[in-house]
Amino acid sequence: xxxxxxxxxxxxxxxxxxxxxxxxxxxxxxxxxxxxxxxxxxxxxxxxxxxxxxxxxxxxxxxxxxxxxxxxxxxxxxxxxxxxxxxxxxxxxxxxxxxxxxxxxxxxxxxxxxxxxxxxxxxxxxxxxxxxxxxxxxxxxxxxxxxxxxxxxxxxxxxxxxxxxxxxxxxxxxxxxxxxxxxxxxxxxxxxxxxxxxxxxxxxxxxxxxxxxxxxxxxxxxxxxxxxxxxxxxxxxxxxxxxxxxxxxxxxxxxxxxxxxxxxxxxxxxxxxxxxxxxxxxxxxxxxxxxxxxxxxxxxxxxxxxxxxxxxxxxxxxxxxxxxxxxxxxxxxxxxxxxxxxxxxxxxxxxxxxxxxxxxxxxxxxxxxxxxxxxxxxxxxxxxxxxxxxxxxxxxxxxxxxxxxxxxxxxxxxxxxxxxxxxxxxxxxxxxxxxxxxxxxxxxxxxxxxxxxxxxxxxxxxxxxxxxxxxxxxxxxxxxxxxxxxxxxxxxxxxxxxxxxxxxxxxxxxxxxxxxxxxxxxxxxxxxxxxxxxxxxxxxxxxxxxxxxxxxxxxxxxxxxxxxxxxxxxxxxxxxxxxxxxxxxxxxxxxxxxxxxxxxxxxxxxxxxxxxxxxxxxxxxxxxxxxxxxxxxxxxxxxxxxxxxxxxxxxxxxx
Length: 655
Known about the structure:
The chain is α+β, with helices and mostly antiparallel strands. Helices cover 56% and strands 15% of the residues. It has five domains: 3-72; 89-241, Beta-Lactamase (2-Layer Sandwich); 280-391, GAF domain (Beta-Lactamase); 407-548, Alpha-Beta Plaits, CATH 3.30.70; 557-648, Arc Repressor Mutant, subunit A, CATH 1.10.10.2840. The protein has helices spanning 3-12, 17-31, 35-48, 53-88, 92-107, 135-138, 147-153, 174-183, 215-277, 281-293, 319-331, 367-406, 413-421, 443-453, 492-500, 519-535, 550-555, 561-581, 585-594, 599-606, 610-624, 632-648, and strands at residues 111-118, 123-130, 141-143, 159-161, 187-195, 198-207, 297-300, 335-339, 342-351, 354-361, 430-438, 460-464, 467-473, 505-509, 513-514, 542-543. The protein has a six-stranded antiparallel sheet with strand order 3-2-1-6-5-4, with helices on both faces. Strand 8 and strand 9 form a beta hairpin. Residues 1-13 and 477-487 have low confidence and may be disordered.
């Protein structure tokens, strides 16, 4: 300020113009004024002589320092807010995104991105970006030490490039250069991220125009990077701790579930043992298992046949079901299978190397439920062994009893009655005897089926003289209350039951007799009826003497003089002709009658050509007359032919 200004102040008793200018200048600097506005004001005052050059220079320096202090204060405030925000985020992914978003905003760059180091591969890879538009850039991987990214990620110092693709001072990689070019990036600057003394990656910014980043930008990036690394590590620790707690909670829940499963298994074991100790354990076991599993449960034989009173189901005899049962035997574990879209689980009960039965659940089970099923299969094996032992003992008793009943000795009559009474047979009851004829290879299986069928009903069944024999009380009705048939059905229900199991059987039934003394003759009668059915090619039928018709009438007279007279009177010429010439005219006549006079069927049954059959029939007509085929005489001839057939097949009245 000039001396005359000071004089003016003193002379007038007030501030001089220079003093007033200085006061106004201080007020402007205090309120904040841009450099351009300050320069305009200073120029005007210099022209007016209100201030000198030294004052103007001091004002410029002071304003610049005030602006720098204000800028630094603002940056520190923003940086503090950024650090606070980052520290408060607990999710790693959210922290990464917040870091690049804040960095881009503070630096004012086009793109911000963060890379993490993979020391196993020796690379640093871009983990998250903000502002990038191409997938190539978002997936850059740079070897440590290469380019700006790789150099910064080594942790040596911040690095930058004003125009990266043209910067020959930086190493280049074709794939990363292609990504940079695709994104349009020119200027790049980055700082390392350090956590606990280790470089974990890099924080970078990029612009799509070439320029040099200022030292203030670099310093700001370093500050952001320091806070970002700490926040990232904190988030990672928090995330790991959260995951550890989650795993611990999951393990605890699994342990609790395991304990509950063990408690359920313990309770099931107790109930299974109670079931095993009770009578009729198999039905109770299936009921208990169905309740525990919440699904229908079935018990089948190794061939898929129903056991324990359940209905037959073709699903259980299918190839998938049988295959699952065999696999369960081999692996000692449950096997799941499907039949026509229906889901099942099979678990076989095994004793040693013997397949006893298979449990089938109408559902595919969870791991916990599979443990229940496997435990139940063990108990089932024990139950089946107990049942089999009991049944074998019962069968041995029946086997001995049936032999004694069919050849009773008077001195054992009282003991015999006592033993028979165990099976519902008494000396005062009407009894019938049935003889069941099946193929040798099906006899044991048929015996098992019939023993299961007869379970809980009076009577006995056993092998006797190479055939199956049944003795049971006679019931004057056509079937049992459950519709399975009874004594009054002449054995038809037996034939049907075995047929359902693909076993062909014929059954001969005696007339009812009272008392054990008549059983031997009744057995002979039933056996004779069976032999007659077989001789007459009526396999797969059931009959007593009445059901045999005329053949039944002849059974009692097979060895009488009348039988010989009947054969001579009706078939004598044919018998003589066959005997002299070795032909089969009688057989041809019998087959022709049995086939109802059908030429082709008769020829097929005799395995001859229809022309040969016609020649034989013509010869028969010539020997005994054509009336044998029709009219009243045909009945006599047919009776004689049946008599002949039974005699030649070994059927006798005492067979």
